[in-house]
Design brief:
The chain is of the alpha+beta class. It folds into two domains: 383 residues, Purple Acid Phosphatase, chain A, domain 2 (4-Layer Sandwich); 211 residues, 5'-nucleotidase,  domain 2 (Alpha-Beta Complex). The chain contains 13 helices and 34 strands. α2 packs antiparallel against α8 and α9 packs across α13.
């Protein structure tokens, strides 16, 4: 019987083959020495041919190689589309990712563990998002995944719905809309069966009982080449800052703890059980700086969030599978005399990481580790231009392909509906001041939807940049993505741009609060940790200087329809989505708004706005609402 079958049996039947454990806040573990990551040495591959390997110790006995197959940030991208290319290759698509994973699982047999570093669902295209992430979970079951750390987008619909994704059952409001569901062992069921893999959340604690929402870690026993047995521990986490980037209702009743502290507690518990090799699978990461490469570590990860976490980890955690930034890299990091291997596999199922753990058969300790990122190619034809369409001529997993087609067919009548037209691309690419063409369109749509007195009486609208999806080169595109004519925009394309299903909220805010809000776009202002430039509706404009000496000096003149917005108690009706309305992305000033009125869903507002121009085209925004301070 293969490893993955043992994994499923151990979890479902309690046979002890695969174990999971919840760790509360009472456990105490020694922390690694805390010192600044600036002293770290970071290295990585310089070419695709280079091998990144870390030798931790010399084995006195026989060793066995165990493989971690890892991917992350899939975001429900079931279909292979032209926009998912990477490094000049057509890549991605669930059927091709499944083929790559299954091939390696067959190659390594019971000496592999398949892990996902979060955001498997959420912020998904329509084919997955319309069915609440259930299709992607079914496909992941068919890939025989073992463990997944939670990502921030797993919380988009709240912890109760995430627990349902894990445990199964139909939604109380709409039922099992994605039935029939494929089962791993064959056949189908009309009741959503849940995830066969186990979510892990070492640093997500329920406020009502102090226990982790999901198990802090899982364990997989391995029979070595010499016949001895040892166990590998997998610790799963999400970034501590999740509450600042998720709708407040999505994380209600939960506390997100420091990542290093929680990992150190988990690994101490694993050691007490005789588990001498543990890996951290965490939904947090970094970026290569300079020119990135598939297996490189260009410019190192210095200053990144994952670097700071690594600097405080227990020295026994020597391998980190990271995520969240949608970047790809494989690096070695040496901090406080401890060298670690760290990887990330980009996003959308385009890259698969294969990590080799060399384990001492007798002690179960990690002797060495190496890794390689590979592109999940779906075509033998290299990508040559933005107009190319994947040939999809490479082998794929047919059962997964059939499941994907089931949902593509189900969603097609809605996805292919033409909802607007454009005369040229309106992209997600920000200008130097952070204004985004599609952000202007979305803000205008939300203003239009809430302008009537009985719907809010809005005078201006704000949109968070992180809610605009599809990547910098996506947007309202002139070039067809399917059977539509050039310039036509479909519902499916629009949903990809705005997949969250947030509702609109209109509040009364003063001129002084609006200035405070604009200042809060910059790090260090009003508790903000990251630069985030809000997108604004037509008629509203302001001046900014991101390098101003203090917060006040970063915002200049503010006007609405050509009239100055005073820094006083003058009231304005302001629209935002419910994510921002609750202080999401660190914009806590929105919490000060009063006279709250809820509205339509953001996707409905955008569709109505696009349709209002038919049979004509949506105007291309001049992107001049934000100006530099003279």
């Amino acid at each position: 019987m293969s490893h993955r079958h043992f994994a499923a049996r151990g979890r479902r039947l309690g046979a002890g083959v695969l174990a999971v454990a919840a760790v509360g806040t009472a456990l105490v573990a020694p922390l690694a020495t805390s010192s600044t990551p600036a002293a770290a040495k970071i290295d990585g591959a310089r070419s695709l041919a280079d091998k990144v390997s870390v030798q931790f110790a010399r084995s006195k006995d026989r060793t066995t190689d165990v493989h971690l197959l890892a991917w992350n940030d899939f975001h429900g991208n079931l279909e292979a589309t032209a926009g998912l290319n990477i490094y000049g290759q057509f890549a991605g698509g669930a059927a091709w990712l499944a083929k790559a994973v299954h091939d390696k699982q067959a190659q390594y047999g019971d000496k592999q563990i398949s892990v996902i570093a979060g955001d498997n669902i959420g912020a998904s295209p329509l084919v997955d998002g319309l069915f609440f992430g259930e299709p992607s979970t079914i496909v992941t079951n068919l890939m025989n995944a073992d463990f997944a750390s939670v990502g921030n987008h797993e919380f988009d619909r709240g912890s109760d719905q995430l627990l349902r994704i894990q445990n199964g059952g139909c939604r109380a409001d709409v039922g099992c809309t994605a039935a029939p569901y494929a089962l791993v062992g064959g056949g189908t069921t009309n009741t959503y069966p849940g995830a066969d893999f186990q979510y892990l959340s070492a640093n997500v604690v329920r406020n009502d009982n102090g226990q982790t929402l999901f198990p802090a870690y899982g364990t997989t026993p391995i029979k070595s080449n010499s016949g001895k047995k040892f166990t590998i521990g997998v610790i799963g986490e999400v970034l501590e800052a999740t509450p600042t980037i998720v709708t407040p209702t999505g994380v209600a009743g939960l506390t997100f703890q420091d990542e290093a502290d929680a990992a150190n507690r988990a690994v101490a518990d694993l050691r007490s059980q005789g588990v001498n090799t543990s890996v951290l699978v965490i939904h947090q990461g970094g970026f290569q700086s300079g020119t990135a490469s598939l297996n490189g570590c260009a410019g190192n990860l210095a200053g990144s969030d994952i670097m700071e976490i690594a600097s405080r980890l227990d020295q026994s955690i020597k391998v980190i599978v990271s995520a969240h930034t949608h970047a790809e890299y494989r690096c070695t990091i040496t901090i406080n005399g401890v060298t670690r291997l760290i990887t990330s596999a980009s996003s959308f199922g385009r890259i698969l990481t294969d990590i080799t753990l060399t384990i001492d058969d007798k002690s179960g300790e990690l002797m060495a580790a190496s890794a390689e990122n590979s592109i999940v190619r779906n075509s033998s034809n290299p990508r040559t231009s933005s107009a190319d369409v994947p040939l999809l001529d490479l082998p794929k997993d047919q059962r997964v392909a059939d499941v994907v087609q089931q949902y593509v067919t189900a969603v097609a009548p809605l996805a292919n509906q033409v909802v607007g037209k454009v005369s040229a691309d309106i992209l997600n690419t920000a200008n130097t001041l952070g204004e985004i063409p599609t952000g202007d369109v979305i803000a205008d749509a939300q203003l239009l939807a809430t302008q009537p007195a009985d719907l809010g009486g809005a005078q201006l609208a704000f949109m968070n940049p992180g809610g605009i999806r599809g990547g910098a080169t996506y947007g309202l595109l002139y070039t067809p993505s399917g059977a539509e004519a050039p310039g036509e925009v479909t519902y499916g394309e629009t949903f990809t741009l705005q997949p969250f299903g947030n509702s609109l909220v209109t509040k009364t805010m003063t001129g002084a609060q609006i200035r405070d809000l604009l200042e809060q776009q910059f790090p260090g202002c009003g508790g903000q940790s990251t630069k985030r430039i809000l997108q604004i509706s037509a008629g509203f404009s302001y001046q900014q200087n991101p390098s101003g000496a203090d917060c006040a000096s970063r915002i200049g003149a503010i006007t609405l329809n050509g009239v100055a917005v005073p820094d006083d108690g003058t009231p304005y009706r302001v629209t935002m989505n419910n994510f921002l309305a609750g202080g999401g992305d660190g914009f806590t000033v929105f919490n000060q708004g009063t006279d709250v009125l809820g509205g339509a869903q953001d996707i409905d507002a955008l569709i109505a706005y696009l349709e209002s121009f038919l049979p004509g085209t949506v105007p291309t925004p001049p992107v001049n609402r934000i100006a530099a301070i003279p």
